[in-house]
Every structure is written in structure tokens, then in C-alpha cells.
Amino acid sequence: MSLVAYINARLIDPASGLDCTGGLSTEGGRITELGADLFADGVPDGMEVVDCGGRVLCPGLIDMRVFVGEPGAEHKETLASASQAAAAGGVTCIIVQPNTDPVIDEVALVEYVKRQARDKAVVRIHPMAAITKGLAGEQMAELGLLAEADAVAFTDADRTVAKAQVMRRVLSYASAFNLLICHYPEEPSLAGSGVMNAGEIAMRLGLPGIPTQAETIMVERDLRLVEMTGGRYHVAALSTAQAIEAVQRGKARGLPVTAAAAVHSFALNESAVGEYRSFAKTAPPLRNEADRQAVVAGLADGTIDVICSCHDPQDAESKRLPFELAATGIIGLETMLPLALELYHNGAMSLSDLLATMTSRPAELLGLRGGKLSPGAPADLLVFDPDKPWRIDEDRFHSKSKNTPYHDRPVQGRPWRTIVDGKMVYSDPDED
Amino acid sequence: MSDISSSDMPFRHLLGIEGLSPSDISEILDLADEYVTQNRQVDKKRSILGGRTQINLFFETSTRTRTSFELAGKRLGADVINMTATASAIKKGETLIDTAATLNAMHPDALVVRHPHSGAVALLSQKMDCSVINAGDGSHEHPTQALLDALTIRRRLGGLHGLTVAICGDILHSRVARSNIMLLNIMGAHVRAIAPPTLLPGAMDRMGVEVFHDMAAGLADVDIVMMLRLQNERMNGAYVPSTREYYHFFGLDRAKLAKAKPEALIMHPGPMNRGVEIDSELADDINRSVIREQVEMGVAVRMAVLDLLSRRPTNQPPVGPEATDT
Asked: Which residue, of A69, A390, B108, B205, has the fewest CB within 10 Å?
């Protein structure tokens, strides 16, 4: 068993509220001890020493919404390449979405993803499984058996379960097993053929718009169904002020509801679409500035529990098309940390609260053992300098796809070391 | 055979368990006990209902319930006629009330009705001068099934009071479950309902049952395990994801049964879906399964019901709760 001493670190553990300078030790894949006084009298012989140089040492990030092309679209991303991108972004655990080909709606496919991940990935990968068979929104998938096979939660990925009766029964059935239903809320008949946020920019560009009400109506519907069934419900990606308000009201009523926001929902607004930039075609769509600010406020006041990357790799060909025809999605694993840190640098959130949205909160929702610094917890760690300035450079991405609207954006904060299961899986090549 | 000359059965019809008293139920079961003995003899026939006409009117296909009622009537000496009203016949336009009026004009003495819609049997009974027996209406009640279940339990365990009975499966759509829950509560048994939430009515806790979604927890220390049939159309993603998943979590097998009392009995109203709600071997285990016995008790209970209801003079203005239009 390898013994490692991380010294001279700013320990931040959002789960316990710990924020102090100190050290942390690991043995094999487990955290053994941590605290301000640890290694105050020096590091015992036989331990490997990692001097963090005053950088932040926190639990590795958990990303609840990652799209990977495996199985079915390996040219866009494989579990292996996604895991390399995750490691480079300080993400030690990714939750992959089931809208693959074939769809992850069978126990055997959950097993397949787990096996591939175990053999080829450098970070932890947990699959979410489909809510409905084939993501068709009609027949409930085998939620109980899929959960027994370790699907951590259920989602129809980028699809919305349009039928209220289906969603009602899903939430009801899932409640018996205490399963988490993650739903992408967009009323399909209202979103129609929309490709960006409805509003002035869509009008000027002549593009069909997706009204914010498409999200609000679906979130409000779902909250009524949660109230009716008691099912645990998580909004996969909130992007509008009205829907955030609805979630806030639901939480105030004591409903078992949580929510996530995609990085792009607070890092950009619809003006990024500019002159038909398909890299700014996202799901949920980039909204107007008021909605963006509502997302920031929702994160700050805790209405939104989780930040996720919505990492959605698309090859150049599928983006190099007229906006309406271009694929939706941007990659995000390698830019999640610095873009989220903008909320800390501009004073919207404390560093610990911000990190909670990417560590302890998703771990709690998904029932994962990681996401915290405590003796016995997995040694999944991130060491980063929250202030280090740099420019996002798509040429240095590890992801197989390069669809990012953030190229050349100046940001602050970047991973220095990423550790999974006690082993270093990423080290900043510019600073050894 | 019975020397009970003046019945205290207050009802002209048997439309449901709801409204029956413990003594009503005991009276039916006591008489049924005697008919069990009679039915085990070589000569099973009596003439109590000699000269009387019983019509079995089934708006839903049924083999076992209809046969059971037919046999019960014939063993008591009645002339029994079976009418199967198919969906197409109903579509010809005759309303239920018209059907009732037509049948009433034929002067039957007992009408046994099964109908796919809840409340239809009660509606029909309002227009009939004879006794009407509910043989199952929609998802509402199936009183003779509950009575035969009670008789089966009583004969095996000596009584119903204080027993813990788990009813498992599609309770949402089950008239058997509703009648059984009511009867067991009336007789002082503890009732548990075990099912996925999608197969439970919303206000289940208002029926005096303890609700479980986990078989192991729900079956702990029960005396009786009543399994319900899960219809094919309810599987495959609508109410439960699949047959496989249903059997895994809610099907009765030896491992789950081990949580119940060692001598716990298994019941099923039939027809069974082997490998869906119940392990095939378990269903045939003569030490645990009383499923065949339930069928035998069914005939005796129906004889008792026909006998008791026939003791009221016909063509008499109805009395009791069923007389009011509800």
C-alpha cells in the first residue's frame, strides 16, 4: 500500500465545512487522516510527499451530466477519452448519460459501461440508466433491476418524458426504491423545432426559438407529480428564472426536489450565438442575461444544488452546418472548474459553497461515497490554484471533440493534480 | 340440510362485503361449512332451491366463477341458465337498465352478475325484483371471493381475528383485494398491502391497511399471503417495467416466503401467472398453498349465499342499504 502525505495544502471540505491549512494522508485508495496539525512535526519515513505549495486540496469534482459517445459514437468520445478530459479538468467521477446507441436501458448495458470504464478509464464512471425504454417516453425501463446493477440514477438524457401519466408512474414506482429521477425539462410541443432561446436575437437571426415557458411548464408539471407521488426528482439542467422560482417554491413546500445548472447557463448568455455560431447551440439553450443572472442567484441561494458540465462532444462535421441543422452541445469537462470559479472570483459564492455544488451535493444525491474529505473516504482528490490566470486553449483539450465556445477565454484557476483512488491521474504539464 | 329456519340476513342482494356485519359473515361461513361436508359426499344434491330459476349474467369472460355459481345453484336444485353478454351485444344498444327489465320479466329468483364496470351490478339490482349477487364488478367488489377466502382461512386456522394477512400485487385494479380488505377488517384481522406504488390506490391508508413496497418487510411474520393476478396489459412498462422485474421484486418465491410465519398459507384467487406473481413450484406445494382448496370453498360459499338469500320472500320491497339509490 502506498502511503502519500499531502502537505502545505489549503484543505477545503464542503461536506464538513472544513477550510484550513494543513495536510492529508492517503493509504492506497483511501483517505486516512487530515487536519491542520497533521504532519506539523514532519512527515514519517516511508511516505511519499506531495507539497501542495498552498494550493487548495479538495474532493475531486463529480460531474452529474456527461454525454459520451460510447457505445455507438466512439468517433466523438470514448469512455477512455472522456476520462482523460475529466482528469485534466479536476473531475474524478463522471456520471454518463444513457442516450447512447444502444440506449442504456438494459442491465447488460449498464454492466458493459461499468466494465469498459473499469478497464479503460482513469476516473470513476457511473452510468445513469434510461427512465423509459429506448428513451421513447412510453414504457418504464426496469428501474429496480437497473438500480441493482448500479445505475446511480435515471434520466432520459436530453429527452423529456412528455406524458404526464408516464412520468407520474415513473416517479411513483421509483419512490418504492428511493431512486433519483433526473429530468431534462422541456415541454416538447412548445419547444417545437426551436434551436435557440426565443427572443430578440432569435427573431433577428430568423431562427425558431424555444420559449422559457417550455422549461417552466415542465418543471411546474413535474413538481405537481412529485407532490402527488413522493418520488425523488432532480432537474437535470435549469436555465430560466421562472423555473428556478418554481423549484424554490417546491423546496419551500418540502418536496424531494433538487436541481442542477449547466456551466453554460451561467458562463454565457444568448448573445454568444452571435452570427450563427453553432458552438453556442446548447441544451438547455443559452438564455438572456436576466435568466443567466437568475441562475447565478439560484446557485448562490442554494435553490440550484449542483453544477454540471453538460459535456456533450460533437465532431467538427456535425457543428459545421447551418445553425438550425448543427448538432447541439458543447464540451465542458476541462472548463468546468475555471468557469465555475468565475462565480467565486466575482463574489457570487464562497469557494466552499461553490465546490459543494461539484463535490458533496452530487455525492449526496447519487449516494456516492466520494465527494468529501474524511478518513475512510475514497482518495479522489483535486489540488488546484484558484487564482492562476490562463487562457482556455482548445488545442490542449484531451477530449476527442473540440466543440467549445470558450476558446481563448481568459480564466482563473486550474487543476494542478488530480488523484483518483489514491493514484495521480493528471498533473499540470506546465508546472511540475 | 340446514335447520336455520329464519335467517337474520338483512339483505336481499349480495352486492359487496361493505355493509356486512361480523355476524352476517359468520352466518354465511357457518352455513358454507355445512355445504363443504355435503359437497364431499357422493350425493351432493339438495332441493332447497327446487323450482327456482338462477340466471348467471356475465358481461366479462369467466370460467371458474361462473362454473362455481352454476354448480352451486344446481346442487341446491335450482334451474340455472348462463347468459354471456359479449361486448358486441352490449354495443347493439340495449342499456343495462333495459337488460334488467327484460330479465326481470322472466321472473328469475336469483341473478348472478359480473360486469367490467364498477357499480354496474348495483345499478342493475335496483331494477330487479329478485336477489342479485355480485360476481365481480370492475375494480370494486367480488364478495363471494372474499367469503371463500375467509372460509378457507377459518377452516385452516380456526378463525380470522388477530391474524396478519398480506395482500400482494395489483391491488389498484383488484376487486378481490377490496372485498378481502373489507372482510378481513370487519373480522378483526390485520391487513397489509404489498405492491409497487403504481399498483396501489392513492388513498390506501384510508382502507385500514398497512402499506409496504418491499416484500421482505411486508411478509415478515404474516399468517397468510394472498397473491393477486397481474394482468398482462399492466406489465411491460405501464405500471411495472417488465414481468422479469416484477417477479424479481414482487413475485412470491421461497426466499421471500421465508420471512412469513413458518406455517403461513399461500392463497391466490386464480388464474395464476406462474413465474410472474408466484413461483410455480410454490403454487403446487400442498403444505403451503391452499389455492385448490379455495376453489372447493368457492362452491360451498356460493351455495350458502344462494341459500340464505332465497330465504327472503321474493317480490318484496327491498330493505337495507342497497335499497337507496347511491
From this structure: B205
